[in-house]
Write a structure and sequence with these properties.
By secondary structure, the chain is mostly beta strands. It is built from no helices and 6 strands.
């Protein structure tokens, strides 16, 4: 059984309240962390729009079983582990 408190949910980006060191600030963005098809899969998705109205999206899914697994995307790293307490 996986217990997660104040971790799963959706967040809306308020770009004017942040500082950006690399690249331009986005016009808007939505970020979600939720369980995937089963409680053993953690799903992370990001959607954002640039100031030039270009839309982008990214999605990652990782097994949340406490074991280390190869990362499906090299952008995440070599391996991914979601600790289970």
């Amino acid at each position: 059984m996986v217990e997660v408190y104040n971790f799963l949910g959706s967040w809306q980006l308020f770009p004017e309240k942040g500082t950006y060191e690399v690249g331009g600030r986005p016009k808007s963005g939505i970020y979600r962390v939720e369980f995937g098809d089963s409680k053993k899969q953690l799903s992370i998705s990001m959607n954002w729009v640039t100031l030039e109205d270009q839309a982008f999206a990214s999605h990652y899914a990782v097994l949340a079983d406490g074991d280390e697994h190869p990362a499906a995307s090299s952008g995440l790293g070599d391996t991914v582990e979601v600790p289970v307490h």
